[in-house]
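Figure 3 (text version): structure tokens given as input.
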């Protein structure tokens, strides 16, 4: 045994040796330089920065992802000689690097295919939700949705840039040789030939918007302040504001955390909706290493490829938050969607300092065309970049009052230097020339001639000089049982005549009744804009002497339109009207409006219609030649967040998720302008679309009215009937004109579209992409004794036919009910309904069944 002091000495030597080894090893490690790679990654074709690209050292878990500007920094203390770049939809790239060096590596990644591709999963065994780890994972994502949305914060704000672009597509040769474009060679001088393989893009619309956005959770409120905006303007021929509203209606914000996502006017079920496991198949297909940990790649596809569902990939964090870091969404080519050849949505989320992921980039691209495989069509894209998030910074209480979207009050408007300095990425060559090209095109005489003829075909108006246009041409010829062959000619002034005042007129002649009809109207704008520019504030005065069918009210079409001359059944009860109108209209930016009116109305019976007294005094004829009334009216209308396109005649509203309220009050004043009756009437109408996701949507109209006072039947509420073969939603399609009159009533109309939900499940029929419709309409009302000719001999008799049988009735103790089943999307634009009438079948000249058609353009 060694002496005690020798043993202790050996232990000390061993301890010193171990400590020396560790110290030397640490110094050697510290003396080795780290391997650092930084750079920027861009798309090889668009040169746009790529967000969320995985950058990592192969065969390790050391990695990172690119930020909103495409930048990355990858760092390790070890020596690595290779780095890998991986991104869904792009070719994976490996690059050699110098170990233990600080270096910059900027790359462009090539897309696997320039075509918008769909996700196809093949070779899967029988799919089940039970004991499926992919389904378990997506259920965790669904359970954590509330914690990963912006709505988790009391307050949030961020900056936003959005770019919306639409282009014509075709092969480069066909675009340059197009007979409409040959006169404008500058349009095809700089085509985009990189976005779509084999086709060129000719941009015709571009819009850029910078904004600051604010959110408050309680009460829920949003505010968007536009700080800069730039878009093309086509001038007087095209409603640029309406075009902007329509394109934004097609390409709405994409929020994957919502149950339903609206894309090109249709609702798609989100792959992380509460019901997603019922409609989607999910597969875990990969894991991706990033600086913030591993991501799980979830591939998903629709169980039924014709339903409104996506296919693509989700990248989910493994940090316990189950947040979506990236999403690629596409559609199946067999989906029941019109005009869309292909569609792709990319969403990128970037973590903040607290590790919460927020949307940093959203991009939607759609290839639209009349045929599935043709070259000609339209290509639209919307890019939105979100940056500089800030949370829980409350604004003043009154900050959220007023309109949800406003323009910032700036001393000077942002110029081109502002856009160049603040765009997340510069415009492409074809995009940058779009502004100047359209401005040049707008001032071209050839373009003005072309759009003039196009306006004639679409809207029915044709310029007859710079200040007058004639039309609408569809009303120039028509026929009916009272007037026989009818010719009409009219026109109006244009804003070139005056921005403040507009005149319109027409004259018509019936060759059977040999009577002239005419109309004169003038509208004066009380703003510095025309009467077509929202919001309108105007005064209108008009006088009309013409025929009218009692109870006919048409939507978006004029009564003398030649296409409505053909009618079913007996249709010979008309009125000759002489009407003077004075009206004031005030619209507000929040889409609330009111009208105040004064109307003198003289109506005389025409055709087989008669105003026959029940009792007569001495020397008094039993037939009354005319009725004269003077009315004061007020109408209030509120359509929250309404978007519309202003046409030459009508505004076409884009149906959204908000209801439309209209309330109207009328007071007849006896003695005013020879008015013969005192009465008051109030009417309320509410329209609302209810979206039911995969089950389609339901349009609902409820209406009620009440009339106070004693009046003859022409002044009662004559319910909207339709004896044409065109389907009218807010009319009763198997009710005869002047069949029902009421002084009090309530009605409901339901029109449900299944969007192919049923037909998509039937093997042969699903290829047709037909869509199913079901409609139900019910009207309940009545006439008080004081307004019922059966109980009040001071009134006029209800009309009768040639055999003396009554043809006008009050609604008794049962409602009028009709319903229909229909097939839509025939040739992608036609709908046909089989309509059935369920009540009052004993009335003369009634039809229990009928076919009605309707042209309807829809995606």
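Below: residues designed for each position.
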């Amino acid at each position: 045994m060694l002496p005690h002091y020798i043993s202790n000495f050996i232990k000390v030597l061993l301890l010193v040796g171990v400590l020396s080894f560790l110290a030397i090893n640490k110094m050697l490690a510290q003396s080795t330089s780290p391997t650092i790679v930084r750079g920027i990654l861009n798309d090889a074709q668009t040169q746009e920065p790529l967000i969320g690209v995985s950058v990592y050292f192969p065969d390790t878990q050391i990695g990172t992802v690119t930020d909103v500007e495409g930048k990355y920094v990858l760092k390790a203390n070890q020596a690595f000689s290779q780095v890998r770049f991986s991104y869904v939809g792009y070719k994976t790239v490996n690059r050699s690097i110098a170990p233990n060096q600080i270096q910059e590596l900027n790359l462009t990644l090539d897309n696997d295919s320039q075509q918008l591709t769909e996700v196809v999963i093949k070779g899967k065994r029988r799919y089940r939700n039970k004991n499926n780890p992919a389904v378990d994972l997506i259920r965790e994502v669904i359970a954590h949705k509330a914690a990963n949305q912006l709505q988790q914060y009391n307050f949030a704000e961020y900056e936003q840039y959005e770019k919306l672009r639409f282009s014509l597509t075709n092969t480069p040769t066909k675009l340059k040789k197009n007979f409409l474009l040959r006169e404008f060679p500058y349009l095809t001088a700089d085509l985009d030939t990189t976005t779509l393989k084999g086709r060129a893009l000719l941009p015709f619309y571009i819009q850029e918007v910078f904004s600051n956005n604010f959110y408050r959770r309680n009460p829920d409120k949003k505010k968007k302040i536009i700080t800069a905006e730039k878009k093309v303007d086509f001038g007087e021929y095209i409603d640029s504001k309406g075009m902007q509203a329509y394109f934004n209606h097609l390409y709405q914000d994409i929020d994957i955390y919502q149950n339903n996502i609206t894309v090109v006017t249709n609702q798609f079920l989100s792959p992380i909706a509460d019901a997603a496991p019922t409609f989607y198949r999910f597969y875990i297909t990969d894991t991706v290493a990033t600086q913030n940990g591993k991501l799980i790649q979830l591939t998903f596809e629709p169980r039924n490829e014709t339903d409104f569902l996506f296919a693509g990939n989700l990248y989910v964090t493994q940090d316990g938050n189950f947040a979506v870091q990236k999403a690629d969404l596409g559609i199946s080519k067999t989906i029941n969607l019109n005009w869309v050849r292909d569609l792709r949505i990319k969403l990128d989320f970037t973590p903040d300092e607290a590790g919460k992921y927020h949307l940093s980039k959203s991009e939607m691209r759609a290839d639209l065309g009349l045929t599935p495989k043709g070259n000609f069509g339209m290509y639209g894209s919307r890019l939105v970049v979100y940056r500089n998030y800030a949370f829980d910074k409350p604004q003043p209480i009154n900050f959220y009052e007023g309109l949800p979207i406003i323009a910032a009050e700036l001393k000077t408007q942002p110029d081109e230097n502002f856009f160049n300095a603040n765009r997340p990425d510069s415009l492409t060559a074809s995009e940058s020339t779009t502004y100047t090209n359209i401005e040049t095109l707008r001032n071209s005489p050839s373009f003005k001639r072309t759009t003039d003829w196009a306006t004639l075909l679409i809207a029915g108006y044709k310029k007859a000089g710079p200040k007058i246009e004639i039309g609408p041409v569809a009303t120039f010829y028509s026929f009916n049982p009272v007037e026989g062959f009818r010719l009409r000619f009219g026109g109006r002034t244009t804003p070139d005549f005056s921005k403040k005042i507009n005149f319109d007129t027409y004259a018509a002649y019936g060759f059977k009744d040999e009577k002239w009809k005419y109309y004169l109207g003038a509208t004066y704008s009380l703003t510095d804009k025309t009467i077509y520019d929202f919001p309108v504030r105007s005064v209108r005065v008009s006088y009309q002497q013409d025929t009218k069918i009692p109870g006919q009210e048409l939507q978006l079409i004029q009564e003398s339109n030649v296409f409505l001359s053909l009618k079913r059944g007996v249709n010979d009860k008309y009125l000759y009207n002489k009407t003077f109108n004075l009206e004031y209209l005030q619209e507000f930016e929040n889409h609330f409006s009111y009208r105040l009116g004064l109307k003198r109305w003289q109506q005389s019976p025409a055709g087989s219609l008669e105003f026959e007294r029940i009792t007569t005094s001495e020397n008094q004829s039993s037939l009354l030649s005319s009725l004269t009334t003077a009315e004061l009216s007020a109408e209030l209308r509120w359509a929250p967040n309404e978007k519309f396109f202003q046409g030459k005649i009508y505004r076409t509203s884009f149906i959204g998720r908000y209801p439309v309220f209209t309330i109207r009050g009328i007071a007849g004043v006896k003695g005013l302008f020879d008015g013969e009756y005192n009465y008051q009437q109030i009417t309320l109408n509410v329209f609302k679309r209810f979206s039911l996701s995969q089950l389609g949507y339901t349009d609902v109209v409820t209406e009620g009215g009440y009339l106070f006072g004693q009046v003859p039947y022409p002044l009662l509420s004559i319910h909207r009937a339709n004896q044409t073969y065109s389907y009218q939603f807010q009319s009763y399609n198997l009710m005869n004109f002047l069949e029902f009159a009421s002084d009090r009533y309530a009605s409901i109309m339901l029109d449900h579209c299944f969007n192919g939900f049923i037909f998509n499940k039937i093997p042969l029929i699903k290829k047709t992409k037909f869509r199913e419709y079901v409609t139900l309409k019910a009207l309940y009302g009545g006439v008080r004794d004081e307004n019922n000719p059966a109980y009040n001999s001071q009134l006029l008799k209800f009309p009768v036919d040639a055999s003396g049988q009554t043809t006008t009735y009050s609604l008794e103790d049962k409602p009028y009910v009709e319903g229909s089943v229909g097939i839509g999307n025939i040739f992608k634009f036609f709908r046909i309904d089989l309509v059935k009438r369920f009540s009052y079948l004993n009335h003369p000249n009634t039809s229990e069944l009928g076919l009605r058609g309707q042209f309807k353009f829809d995606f």
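The chain is about 10% helix and 40% strand.
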